[in-house]
Amino acid sequence: MYIEKKQIQKEDGRKLTYYHFPETATDSETDAFKSVEAEVQILKSGEKESKDV
Amino acid sequence: MSELRWNPTLGEWVVTATHRQDRTFFPPPDYDPLAPTKPAGFPTEIPAADYEIVVFDNKFPSFRSTPPEPSLPGSELYPVREAAGVCEVVCYTPQIDAELHDLPFKKLEQLVHVWADRYEELSKLSYVDYVYIFENRGKEIGVTLPHPHGQIYAYPFIPPIPAKELEAAKTYQARTGKNLYDDIIQAEMEDGRRIVWQNDVFIAIVPFYARYPYEVHIIAKSNITAISDLSDEGKKSFAEILRVIGRKYNNLWNRSLPYIMLMHQRPSDGAEHSSYRFHVEFYPPYRTPDKLKYLAGSEAGAGVYINDTHAEVTAKTLREVEWE
Fold this sequence. Notes:
The complex is a heterodimer of chains A (53) and B (324). With 53 residues, chain A is of the alpha+beta class. Chain A has one domain (3-44). Chain A contains one helix and three strands. Chain A has a three-stranded antiparallel sheet, with helices on one face. The longest helix of chain A has 9 residues, at 27-35. Helix content of chain B is 26%, strand content 21%. A nine-stranded antiparallel sheet of chain B has the order 3-5-7-6-11-12-10-9-8, with helices on both faces. Chain A binds chain B through residues 1, 3, 5, 8, 10, 12, 14-21, 24-26, 28-29, 31-33, 35-36, 43-44, and chain B through 36, 45-57, 59, 106-107, 109-110, 113-114, 117, 232, 235.
């Protein structure tokens, strides 16, 4: 399974991680993930070997 | 303010978390703190217009990565420690009325991968000895936020119940040369009466020693000691059996059944735990459609559970409940 994640720090300092599954994500989910300003980490490699940050 | 206080009479830690008295308690229906934050909408915990799965530090944690100083110094009789650890909330759907077992299968499979990732990430922390993944469902359990969500507690010690299981498994192996969970699975396969469902990787039983009438344990058939040990196919099998058990529970009395769902697995304390076995336990509190099993004097005060049913009977009932 190919998974991407982004971790941010909320205003109060707490960590929050978004998990994104490009193979099944809707446009709304994909847009929301893209709008998060953080580096993409690839959790598993599947069809895609790398991802531009 | 949270801290660990040692109970010398039981040899275990108690966590005090006084700030949790003010945690969110049944928010108004028009405010869902676990929903996405819509444009021009009220800010929620998730500052995005949509999400698939999101995991974040609990706003009212019992453990923190940078814990506060304890409220008092402690003593040789009553040691006190900082409550170092992590408490996370796992939001696996933006829909407030969704249920874990009715998610599209691919979504449930994705959640298993997220759980495995959180287990691996939190296990790496030097101050974490045990990663505990669980979900409380239903107001009868004490849930105060209706939006479906799970939690993860990363403890700085191995909690008492997993610790007892670990010791029992180790002692059994030392005494017999065999794995306790292998023998349990073999006994259940030979008997058959307590099996609820199974696939190639997992078996779901009402245990011989069930404490709740409809308690179910899902046990890995091979020597898997943590969720992260599962292959992708293993994770798919795990998602499948979770879905089956969850749907059987909901179809039992044709309503969403409250329960605690928890995972017991290998600690992250660096010790070898090969005699152990990854498994899930469900504790549904209802013993009939309208009667709760309370943890009263014998259970709470003596640690002795009184089960009003036999596992063979309730397992048969669950086995015969439709799930598809």
